[in-house]
Amino acid sequence: MSGAASVGTRREGAVLIVTINRPARRNAVDREAAQALYDAFKAFDADDTLSVAILSGAEGNFCAGADLQAVAAGKGNPVRPEGDMGPMGPTRLELSKPVIAAIEGYAVAGGMELALWCDLRVVSDTARFGIFCRRFGVPLIDGGTVRLPRLIGASRATDLILTGREVGPDEALAIGLANYAAPAGKALDRALQLANDIAAFPQNCMRADRLSAMRQWSLDMETALKAEIEGGLEVLKSGETLQGATAFTKGKGRHGAF
Ligand SMILES: C/C=C/C(=O)SCCNC(=O)CCNC(=O)[C@H](O)C(C)(C)COP(=O)(O)OP(=O)(O)OC[C@H]1O[C@@H](n2cnc3c(N)ncnc32)[C@H](O)[C@@H]1OP(=O)(O)O
Q1: Which residue stretches, if any, does this entry annotate as coiled coil (predicted)?
Q2: What does the pLDDT read at residue 254?
Q3: Which domains does the chain have, with CATH numbers?
């Protein structure tokens, strides 16, 4: 592991693993950790040798949200409406590449918002989500009220936001809050497998489709369809499509061209 003590980074081929490392506080994120998370994902996006990132937490928990001990001491995470840094760090960054959350244990409050910011969520048997900050008067300011209804629908999101109740892995999978299941202790392994599969695809095409899918949330239909074809044209121009189609005609497998 390299990087600041509260956040570690490790490479595995084209995959970057980012780990929140404050286990004594259930990986709650203070100012330093928020900055380190933001810096790690900015660097990931700028590094052409990396294709997919994984966000995880040390020692059996994903993240217990913002560091409430720091908040109580008047040293809470900066809250700035402008710019692309959220109080938890990267939650307002629009990356050009996907991030997968590998979730063991608690992913609550701001920790749940970090998970919602990720493209996909792998949950182990121990995973627990919840808007636990409901109890402490801390608002959702890392995208939770925006992303949760879009991911699981308004009715379910309203329930979770109003009640702050705990959600286990079975329910998370059933309502689309999580995408993949893993046995306890194996979320990172499953996320790594998934990341390697995604990293093996033609990258221009995958990134263009991902970005178009993400952006349609905020666009009207006509603008979204125009943006989709503009992004697709760039992929066609890159030569990736011709390379893939040629590989197909030569009987190569789905990853054969790359
Ligand atoms: C925009 C973002 C907003 C926010 O995120 S606001 C923060 C909201 N966070 C929460 O509401 C979660 C608060 N934490 C909890 O509810 C519980 O913890 C857990 C359910 C996550 C875990 O429970 P258990 O496994 O029983 O552990 P434990 O004994 O409560 O905690 C172990 C140590 O971790 C510290 N800790 C846990 N969460 C936080 C936190 N969010 N900020 C600072 N410290 C935290 C505790 O205080 C304690 O520490 P010690 O061992 O010194 O007593």
Answers
A1: none
A2: 55
A3: 7-200 (3.90.226.10), 203-250 (1.10.287.2460)
